[in-house]
UniProtKB/TrEMBL annotation:
Sequence ranges assigned to domain NAD-dependent DNA ligase adenylation in this UniProt record: 54-129
InterPro entries per record: DNAligase_adenylation (IPR013839), NAD_dep_DNA_ligaseB (IPR050326)
Assigned keywords, A-Z: DNA damage, DNA repair, DNA replication, Ligase
Superkingdom of this protein's organism: Bacteria
Listed name of the protein: NAD-dependent DNA ligase adenylation domain-containing protein
Any one GO BP annotation for this protein: DNA replication
A Pfam family hit: DNA_ligase_aden
Organism encoding this protein: Klebsiella pneumoniae
GO MF annotation list: DNA ligase (NAD+) activity
Biological classification of the source: Bacteria, Pseudomonadati, Pseudomonadota, Gammaproteobacteria, Enterobacterales
UniProt entry tagged with the keyword Metal-binding: no
Length: 138
């Protein structure tokens, strides 16, 4: 999530819950002290179905999954153990979330095999039935 997107989300939150959130200029900057081992960049969106078909042509190693809106995170595993969880921040540096990430039951604390020494980037999200994003088509 970019800082601009974060500000838009905060604006939407303020509409739903007036007086319950800080103003945009009270939001912390989108960086931190933890350095990403690999830059955490966003994905480039394709405009239409034809663009997707052209992009997919001659690719056989695709993994397609539903779009999930959460918070971007980098997970670092060394010798099979989760050693770092970093917020996306500005893509080069983010907040150190390791202690909190270890408290998430669904998050793997141990990896084996090929993933024992790996850097994974993805989204942390909370699954809830009837969530407002689901109702709005998100």
């Amino acid at each position: 999530m970019t800082f601009t997107t974060s500000s838009l989300c905060a604006a939407q939150w303020r509409q739903c819950f007036p007086g319950a959130t800080p103003e945009d200029d009270d939001l912390p900057p989108p960086t931190g002290d933890a350095r990403h081992p690999v830059a955490h960049t966003g994905v480039r969106k394709l405009a239409d179905e034809d663009s997707v078909a052209r992009w997919m042509k001659n690719k056989s190693d695709l993994w397609i999954q539903p779009k999930v809106d959460g918070v971007a995170v980098t997970l670092v595993y060394r010798q099979g153990r989760l050693v770092q969880a970093i917020s996306r921040g500005d893509g080069l540096r983010g907040e150190a979330w390791t202690a909190r990430a270890r408290q998430i039951p669904a998050l793997a604390k141990v990896m084996t095999g090929e993933l024992a020494d790996s850097v994974l980037q993805g989204e942390l999200f909370l699954r809830r039935d009837g969530h407002v994003q689901q109702q709005a088509g998100g």
